[in-house]
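Reading a protein record of the kind used here takes only a little practice. The integers have meaning only within a learned vocabulary of local backbone shapes. With that in mind, consider the following protein and its fold in token form:
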Amino acid sequence: MDILGEVIASVRIGRADATYVRSSGAWGFRCPAFAGSGFHILLRGSAWLVPATGEPRRLEPGDVVLAPFGAAHGFSHAPARFEQLPPAVLDTEPAPGPADAELLCGAYWLDRGQVPHYLRALPELIAISPDYERHPELRSLIDLLGSDVTDSGPGGGATRPALLDLMLTHVLRHWLEQHHNARLPDVSDREIAAALHAIHTKVDGPWTVGQLSDVAGLTRTAFIRRFTALLGQSPSAYLIAWRLSTGARLLRETKAPLATVARQVGYSTEFAFSGAFRRAYGIPPGRFRDA
């Protein structure tokens, strides 16, 4: 099972955005915690990554910082304490021209819902120094994303979600390469992987825990115990979360009627889907689509 693919699919329901940050002299800013996943690429100059807790880390040009589940963090021209940094203001156009430090920042903002368990199982902040000689495709991807951010013409930004998908995938791959003892939740377990494959390929199936344990070839008790240990949540909770995140993606990406979306993700009625969606996302599916 392609865990990275599932990670990206889970965050894709969020609002994709990216921007440049250019700073000179004595500078610094802090990003509050948010629901989503974000990254920063230091393109020019030097900077210090400032976590909300812990010691600052010096960054060099080309370094990439990933906040898998939106943990609070900051950046500064020199070592600093997080609480000393001013709040980030990233919605204004940065000053053109060269600067002492330049970062390219991107994120998926999940207005509703939760960051998936796969990402919450990772460290709060991941900093990597990619080998661009060995992976020139990452340099090309950064250039494409940078061009997309500055494109103000028709269709500008249309490819941004796909570029952010690729960035998250490459950054996670690089980190896993550099940390051989680290891994995403283990689904090499053949029995649990079989159940996950069934859920993900037939999300509209009338699944029960008993049916999924049959797919896995395990007793119900053994299946629940192993699934929960590996995924951090029960099979029922995982199934509901995946159905609703798939439904949220369909609401964002298609114009299918609500009743059709409900059937496509395994709910027999629009009413049942709407109730479950409201409990998970705090908003009715119709308002979610409009937003």
About this structure: The CA atoms of residues 246 and 265 lie 7 Å apart. The mean pLDDT is 84. The two ends are 32 Å apart (CA to CA). DSSP finds eleven helices and nine strands in the chain.
